[in-house]
Design brief:
Elements: H1 41-57
């Protein structure tokens, strides 16, 4: 018998199938710029992905 799960849900075509929150970007009064770790990388990743998807759907 197959396992039943409700972990995955259908995503409407009007929504991005990506889990993201602006809270993932770490900031601390600008001091994050002094550290080599890219604290805002998740914001850059989501912008990159959205740009790729939009360009792919253009006629």
């Amino acid at each position: 018998m197959p396992h039943r799960t409700e972990l995955y849900q259908d995503v409407p075509s009007t929504r991005w199938p990506i889990v993201y929150s602006p809270d993932y970007n770490i900031t601390f009064m600008g001091l994050e710029k002094l550290h080599p770790f890219d604290a805002g990388k998740w914001g850059k990743v989501i912008d990159f992905l959205k740009g790729k998807i939009v360009r792919r759907n253009l006629p």
